[in-house]
Write a structure and sequence with these properties.
alpha/beta, Aspartate Aminotransferase, domain 1, Aspartate Aminotransferase, domain 2, seven-stranded mixed sheet, four-stranded antiparallel sheet, binds pyridoxal-5'-phosphate
Length: about 350
């Protein structure tokens, strides 16, 4: 069974990883204009020319090797369907969809774990050496990682894996919300790499379902174009996202503002959690991995107050001592700390 964050019964839901500042101010006005323009009454352009142009101009790369997708989620599926690897090596713990898909398609699943030391988790790229030599393998790295929040310098990954026979899929769904990350697609992305991005996530409009996939391997991109359904993105989503991305200055400021808000609130939450004796792991993004031997009880007490956090029992290598906490609005984060203080007394 699929397992994701999101708890409809919670009064405040910290189990989802959204941009806490909410959608860009003009999103709803743009949506209204798109609706008035009749986008629901016609099929979208199945070549998505406007959307491709808007994405490639915003992210500063060549649109020929770009496939717009229904969220980062569809990009993951399409890359795996098109490449048809015999083995998928996933750097774990990580987002669960890759493994679920590998198992459903009968592809060999091979976990490779982040290592740990007293400071936290880290990626030892030499652990990927044997998979790197297999041309029928796909290595999957979520960077920044969900649920760890860890960001590994992309240059280190390129240097170590660009000469691999294997393909490498880097899922960068959280890149725009990561204060240490560079947003643009690299011109020197290695030939064997596939990049997955989410756009609706940083826009805080996840219901729009827009992301994209980029690879320099033209043959693979052609295959993906052939297997995606012709109108994989709805006309309303296409219109809203094309318009927003073409307001480049405003959207870059929006990303910057989101990053600053997240960093400030994350520090505040980390400090609060640590002062309650809860261990936190260094995060570059809009969520924190937290650990306590009493976590099961803490989660139970939080739920009694209508507060949800993401239990981590479905993540490889983590257990019931861990939860992932999404950064929310300042007043909500303060409320969480107050509830945690009460929960710790039980
Ligand atoms: C690592 C990772 N990749 C992809 C996705 C899917 O993103 P989208 O909403 O753009 O499909 C998620 C969603 O939470 C995620 O955590």
């Amino acid at each position: 069974m699929r397992f994701h964050g999101g708890n409809e019964r919670a009064k405040i839901d910290f189990s989802v990883n959204l941009n806490p500042i909410g959608p860009p101010p003009r999103a709803y006005e743009i949506a209204t204009n798109c609706l008035k323009g009749g986008v629901l009454e016609r099929y979208p352009d199945y070549n998505y020319r406007n959307l491709k142009r808007a994405i490639s101009e915003f992210y500063k790369f060549d649109g020929a090797s770009l496939v717009p997708t229904a969220g980062g989620g569809e990009a993951i599926n399409l890359a795996i369907f098109a490449f048809k690897p015999r083995r998928i090596a996933i750097v774990e713990p990580s987002y669960g969809e890759y493994e679920d898909l590998a198992r459903a398609l009968g592809i060999e699943y091979s976990p490779i774990f982040y290592r740990r030391d007293s400071k936290g988790f880290y990626l030892e790229l030499s652990d990927l050496e044997s998979t790197c030599k297999r041309e029928d393998a796909l290595i999957v790295i979520t960077n920044p990682n969900n649920p760890l929040g860890l960001y590994v310098d992309r240059r280190r990954i390129y240097e170590s894996l660009s000469r691999c026979e294997a393909k490498v899929m880097v899922d960068e769904a959280y890149r725009e919300l990561c204060n240490r990350c560079y947003i643009e697609i690299d011109r020197d992305l290695p030939e064997n790499f596939i990049v997955v991005r989410s756009i609706s996530k940083w826009l805080s409009l996840p219901g729009l379902r827009i992301g994209f996939l980029y690879a320099r391997d033209g043959e693979l991109v052609e295959k993906i174009e052939a297997i995606r359904q012709p109108w994989n993105i709805g006309g309303l989503s296409e219109c809203i996202v094309s318009s927003l991305l073409s307001m480049e200055r405003e959207m870059r400021d929006f990303i910057e503002e989101s990053r600053m808000y997240i960093a400030r609130e994350r520090e505040k939450l980390e400090r609060g959690l640590r002062s309650l004796g809860i261990k936190t792991y260094e995060s570059a993004v809009n969520f924190i991995l937290a650990e306590s031997p009493y976590m099961k009880n803490i989660v139970f007490e939080l739920e009694r107050e209508g507060i949800a956090v993401r239990k981590c029992t479905s993540f490889k290598g983590l257990g019931e001592e861990y939860v992932r906490i999404g950064i929310r609005k300042s007043w909500e984060n303060e409320k969480l700390l107050e509830s945690l203080e009460r929960a710790m007394k039980h």
